[in-house]
Amino acid sequence: MALPDRDLQAAIAATRFGLGARPGEIDAVRADPQGFLLAQTTSRPVPDPIRALPVARAEALQAFRQAQAAFLKANRQQDRKAVDLRPELSAARTVLRDQIAADVLERAARGATTEAGFAERWALFWANHFSVGAGNFVRTATIGPYEAAAIRPHVFGRFADLLVAAETHPAMLLYLDQNGSVGPDSPLAQRTARRPDAKRQLGLNENLAREILELHTVGVDGGYTQADVTEFARALTGLTFRGFNAPAEQVGETYFRQIAHQPGPRTVMGVVYEVEGEAQALAILNDLAARPQTARFISRKIARHFVADDPPPALVARLEAAWRDADGALDQVAAALITAPEAWAPAPAKFKTPYEFMVSSWRAVGAAPRKPADLAMLTAMGHRPFYAPSPEGWPDEAAAWATPDGIIKRLVWTQDYAPRAIGAADPSKIAVEALGARLSPATATAVARAESRGEGLALLLMSPEFQRR
Amino acid sequence: MWGARALAAPQRRKFVLVILRGAADGLSITPPVGDRAYAPLRRELAITEAALPLDGDFGLHPELKTVHRLIGAGQGRFAPAVAMPAAGRSHFEAQDRLEAAAGSDVSSGWLNRAMASLGRGAPVEGLSVGPVAPLVLRGQVATSSWSPGRAVETAARLPMLVQDLYADDPLLGPALARGLKTEVLAQANLARLAVDTADTPEAPNAARLSRTLQGDSREAATRLGDAVAGFMREETGADVVAISLDGFDTHANQAGALSRRLAYLDALIGGLQGGLGQGWGETVVLVVTEFGRTARVNGTLGTDHGTASTALLLGGGLKPGGIIGDWPTLKEARLFENRDLAPTADLRSLFKGVLAEHMGVDRRALDTTIFPDSAKAPPILGLV
Lengths: 469, 384
What we know:
Helix content of chain A is 58%, strand content 3%. Chain A has 24 helices and 4 strands. Chain B has helices at residues 2-7, 26-29, 38-42, 65-72, 91-100, 110-118, 157-165, 172-197, 206-212, 218-233, 254-276, 347-357, 363-370, and strands at 14-20, 52-53, 59-60, 76-83, 126-129, 144-146, 240-245, 283-289, 309-315, 345-346. Chains A and B meet through helix 11, helix 19, helix 20, helix 22 and helix 23 of A and helix 5, strand 6, helix 7 and helix 8 of B.
């Protein structure tokens, strides 16, 4: 299967592999489209590990929790002081809310301005694979730091390292209820059971174990049983993080709480783990990372995300082989994707998600979101950043997004955005720079015949080839 | 009842499917207050005195006030222990099974296939509510979708020019056409709602009202139910509606989170009923979830993935009757895999019964194309 000509390759490199072409990008890439992409995969050595939660974030969370606790206590005691405590709580909440909004904006702005669109798309893929969704304030405030500390540094490194980093970060531990999971026969559980004033029995929570097996590694058809889920959950007990009562520089650090750990060996997917304590769950995680089902499950996801909802089996096989040959070195898997002929099929088979649509629109005009309100429409489109509805993350397939309502919402946004964004630019020129050889004659004509510059840009953004990649 | 209905002006039958995503806890929706094993298994999470009373055996979650009223008026029933076969305990797989009901084939949903079967006579209109299209309504038959938000100027140039661009696009062309049609309906709907609910002297503001439809409050839910009813009341409006509600995966600190979501569900049903008016008599609402939760409370005051859960059947034209299916009890020996409530009926039987008797779907189609391989799930009849 031959690659298409250079012009089309350049367009595909920017629009399918990347997040959309900024003005001049397709021209710059034409000389060596594959080289342009490969250069973005160079494995970055992880510097001193990035702190799980920046100190400023930890302090803001502590201030919020303190204010909240004081207010709730006064409220419960029907103390008049509660009224005075409200402004402090409000202020603490606002600080956090602003920090969260800044996280979201920063990520969107990075997507709009980066010169390494493929690397960014690759990172977003992994952040979605290890999706942590918003919930209460505290949890939502850990998501930005999670992506920075646990995901991004590892996306071109070893999968096993990425897996361990993601599963041990406080954001994931909070999201999947791990921090409260206690081994039923652990010293902590036994101690609590003996106390006459024990408010509740401490016990196991299976959520993290299940999602690691089902979503993050071997996949739902990976051959594990309910018993494996429970055993894995037992192995994970004790895995937690330094809570908000710790000094700010320690808050969020992963640590292992021996007294909460279920003692004894564990058997997961036919393998007996005699090693005890902290090393037990880590051993299981590393073994899961190495299983062929993991390579297969995730290779298919990569192919689905980058190329087509129903990816060519040859492509999946290529990625899987690269994964196995490289022992999960993700820069090699990325290289296999970039050099796979199937990934360069001319027809745009992927329908853009709302986020991809907006980011590529900003890129097309050389703009970037500047304030949280610029992202507000994503909520109405059902794609609010950080708010994936389940651990499965955001769906990828066209049927989820190309709904009547979805198209209408894009039209609403475009109707409003295009006239403001176009300024004095020429929409026909923008169309050529955004799509290159992927621009169709029909769209080019419609843009050229538009009644106004804004209308021209709107037609480009709503065009079938711009709605896809 | 049948005689009286035959004499009345023929009204189109309507069906609303509400999917609670995340495995909603049936043991909290319809707590088995009469089952002695319940309180010891659920401890802090057991709902006993607080339950809204039904009979000696079951109660209702305290937030389900509308459902309680409907059941009291003979307009509601429930199946306390139902499940899809071999659902497994993975949300996404189970939701696919719940919505596709065709083994490993997830290209279409059973509701869309039912519409295809019905549509051989007169066309049946389907509507999904919410920004993401649920699998249950995907398939051969094109359906509409809507979610609250800012409106598009349907008569402006841009929509028409974009339609031209989509003339040869099999995915975007039909989607945009339907979207515009729905938009026209929605704007008329909201304008009417704004007039009906305006309690200030200023001119009613459809845009502002649209914003109040978003959000998690009871008020937002009531308005949303009313808005959806508006779509259904139109002449060429929706006959079949699918609504998804999130937030039922209560692994930790279940009590508060579940109360809030059930309050939303309850208000949504109230809004639907109120908005439909006379049409409520011809409407059936079925509330289901992909599986239930563990019989025992877990270590974080929540519950984990289980098997059987509750399905709610509501509507103005239901036949009187008791619980749908059986109650296997929560005795340890009767628990499924020693952890879950055991199912006593297949959800497909419930779907088939409602589709056959309420919507008039062909019985043979139900057993073949709509629910393939469902010989083990005969329709539950006599509900409507």
